Fold these 4 entries.
Entry 1:
Amino acid sequence: MYTVLREDGNYLNNGQGTYNEYIVDNIEDVATLPTGKDNKSINRPRPGSTALVANAGMVYVLNNAREWVVLVEG
């Protein structure tokens, strides 16, 4: 299975939400990021969205269960 995030230079926005890229200061800040588990949420990032943790050099990704998990260890 695959998912298209961007097509022809534009990020897709559909029932899954919008692909987002975040930068946070600390690992603890990842817990404050939206997950989109609530379908009625205005800010609904789609799975595959990423978050860079600036002070730890880590990257998190939003998985299909809509949980932020470590993609790259710092």
Entry 2:
Amino acid sequence: MGITTSKKEVLKGFLNSVNDSQLVLLRSSKALTATIQANDLLPIAAENIKSYTIKRKNSGLRGAPTGLCIGSAIVLISLKIYLIQ
């Protein structure tokens, strides 16, 4: 997850928790497997957040089979039309 603050700082980390006053990021992925220490957490006040981005895990692999099937169908239909003429 990436956060852009009102001071144009870009902060990156893993989303830990969210409430109405702040968002808390984990600084590194190794904190996910170990006991979370206080210095691993990065709280960001809601009024300091300008924008945020969330990257989905394996998002490229989800659409690949659908795109392959649709592309193959279009090629087969085009080839059939071409051979009929």
Entry 3:
Amino acid sequence: MNDNFADELMAVSLWLEAARGECRIEPRPSKRSTMRYAWNGPMEMKDRENVHYVHCYDIGAGGLGIISRRAVVPEATVLLRHSTNDPWVACSVAHCTETVGKFRIGMKVKLDL
């Protein structure tokens, strides 16, 4: 079990609570099994030893969507955090889709139970 599990779970819960407070949800049903809430927030993504600034555009109980200037490999594990006070949260890359000048990346939160 991950030693930081409680801190990571609390951080993700607070991110989700903040998004729910904005009362904006997906405009139509999607292929996801859980509801995603629009959330406009800067984040940091760490892949190996490099930290990149990314932008979160939605979040749900199972994962989140980010926009990045850098591509990541699907199924790779990366770390995310919303602020320097948050713990790094492990996520697996579900998809990475190139758009104009950026990449839309779907993440699944990996909380080891």
Entry 4:
Amino acid sequence: MYGELNCIVFDATMRKGLDYILRKLPAHSAEIIELYKKDVDFRILCEDYLASGQALEECRLNVIKDKEFEKEFLEVYLELEKEINHLLRSCTK
């Protein structure tokens, strides 16, 4: 699945970040992999997107029973998603 990405040394968090974003945005898998290969900032963005998604899910499952935290995590998650989509659109130009 990762093709040429095997040359990049991944730790478990990086692999999870890549898997997560590929599941969330499967229509953009080619662009995601291309950016992941060449842009360390994009890789970090994917890790942050995963972390915010996990935190949001914990809030929604009532592990964290604070609606204000849930709202904040949702804002961060949507902002990261917006940034990712912007990068993906610029990759296809």
